[in-house]
Amino acid sequence: MKIGLRIDIDTYRGTKYGIPNLYKILDRHSIKASFFFSVGPDNMGRNLWRLIRPSFLRKMLRTKASSLYGWDILMRGIFWPGPVIGKKLAGIIRSVSNAGHEVGLHAWDHYGWQAHLDTMDSIAMQRDLRRGVELLTEIIGRAPTCSAVPAWKCNNLALLEKAKFPFSYNSDCRGESIFYPLIGGKELSQPQIPVTLPTYDELIGRRGVSNSNYNESLLSFIDPEKLNVLTIHAEVEGIVCLDMFEKYINMAQSKGASFFPLGAFLSDSLTADRAIIAAKEISGREGWVSYQSPKNLQLE
Ligand SMILES: [Zn+2]
Fold first, then answer.
1. Which pLDDT value is given to residue 145?
2. I want to staple 273 with a disulfide (CB 3.0 to 4.6 A). Which of 28, 172, 179, 283 is the partner?
3. Cα–Cα distance for residue pair 147/168, rounded to 1 Å
4. Mean pLDDT for the chain?
5. How far is ligand 1, taken at its centre, from the CA of residue 149, in Å?
6. What is the pLDDT of residue 300?
7. What is the Å distance from ligand 1's center to 196 Cα?
8. For residue 221, what are the CA distances in angstroms to 113, 172, 192, 228, 230?
9. CB–CB of 23/247 below 8 Å?
């Protein structure tokens, strides 16, 4: 039973603290995974504030949210540009690559992409991708072989801009199987490896799932007959849910599962499907995500 393990890193904090933590766990269990880095400015504080209504803000001040999240995260990118993660923490990113993990591009500016994708033109997308690829290349000494858009926010324009880079695959959406995306009936050459399993924030607090039964619940989604791809976040499983994540690894391995970087699925003799990427709402997550969808959905 194979599980593709994808680690998304969205912030400076996740890179600095989450990565070294996860790195040790993976090492202890002899696991190689795919790391998707955000390397440009960390403006994720803006994302948090964007979600907050005045009533919620008052509650946060009352409950001293700053001690929960840390003022550094809450203020990041609000009054001044956030730190460029790839400049400040290049050594951590490089160590992941040197240890033999798969390294891909998540974002130049994670917040910028997820907040403004709908209004970005191909020039803006190309500039974002290129800045990310160039800095990551400088850090690890070779071009990243794969990419994954922030927050599963992708569209056909983004797919076409990604096709200009030598990525052997992208992981831009949720879905069920490896597939080649179709645009206007034409097949792109970079396959998509979708994420098939729910993330922590989608599963927790719903349908009776709490931290005490989270791991069992997550394991119940594994289907040995199908593609299984899990995304964890350096900010979540790498920091606050670290112990729980290590228990999950132990449980999964004792049930016969092994973890792999996503690129390992490409060498399998899987027959890739053809599908389009369409926006869809999924349970536990606000707004839309890109989803592997039947090709007859495509509107010409
Ligand atoms: Zn992300």
1. 96
2. 179
3. 9
4. 89
5. 7
6. 43
7. 16
8. 29, 20, 20, 9, 10
9. no
For 40, counting Cβ atoms within 10 Å of its Cβ (0-12 exposed, 13-18 middle, 19+ buried), the class is: buried
Token pair 């707004």 in the structure block, residue: 287
Instruction: Determine the distance separating the centroid of ligand 1 and the alpha carbon of 148, expressed in angstroms.
Output: 8
Amino acid identity at 48: L
- Going from the Cα of 255 to the center of ligand 1, the distance in angstroms, rounded, reads 29
Q: Answer left, alpha or beta for residue 208, where phi above 0 means left and psi between -120 and 50 means alpha.
A: left
Q: Name the 3-class secondary structure at 297.
A: helix
Residues in the chain with pLDDT < 70? 46-81, 268-270, 296-300
Tokens representing 242 are 């670290």
Helix H or strand E segment including 171: none
Q: Residue 32 is which amino acid?
A: K
Alpha-carbon span 93 to 112, nearest angstrom: 21
Contact 109, 269 (CB under 8 A): no
The per-residue pLDDT for range 47-60, each reduced to its tens digit, is 665 555 555 566 55
The pair of three-digit structure tokens given for residue 257, joined into one six-digit string? 């599962």
Q: Which two tokens stand for residue 190?
A: 């970079």
The most distant pair of C-alpha atoms in the chain lies apart, rounded to whole Å, by: 56
Cα angle value 264/95/229 (rounded, 5°)? 30
